[in-house]
Each structure stands twice: as structure tokens, then as C-alpha cells.
Amino acid sequence: MTTDEARLKKLKLRAWRRGFKEADLILGPFADKHVSTFGEAELDWFERLLEQPDQDVYAWILERQETPAEFQGPLMSLLRAFRDEAYKVSGPGGSLHG
After folding, report:
1. Three-class SS state of 57
2. Model-level pTM?
3. What is the pLDDT of residues 52-78, one digit of tens each?
């Protein structure tokens, strides 16, 4: 296994095993679908995101709290679009419908 393959495997595992089920159910499938297509900078961003507290990440994804500038941008937009597609969210601060 190459270093890149090991990194992708580790990120996917971390995304699925957050310890906060609601975050796992968004971040895990997102990682499965997208991390293999990410470049180095995008992988760095996702890795930094996974280092943040679960409750914060989940609130940012659902737009219940303002997302810090370092996590705003195209990848957070991609993550939110994935959330909407996979779970049918009803607007900012809305609840998940699965």
C-alpha cells in the first residue's frame, strides 16, 4: 500500500468513526465518494476538518453555526451539497430527513 492509499484509507476510517453518529452518517459516505478524487490541498482541508470537535463540524455542515473562514469555500459547499443530495435537508438549520 502506498502512502497515498494509506492516507485515503485513514481519512475514510476517521470520517466513519467520529463517535457522533449523525456526523458519521454524513462524513463517512462523503469520504467514500469524494476523497479519492481530492488533490493534496483538498485532502489537507478534509484532514483538518476531521480534527475539529464533532459537534462543531456537524453544526457547520447543517449551517446551525457560522463556519470558520478556514473551512468555508468550495469543499464545504461540496459537503453541504452532498448532505442535501443524500439526506434531503430543509433549509439552513433544518433537520435531516433520510
Report:
1. helix
2. 0.84
3. 999 999 999 999 999 999 999 999 999
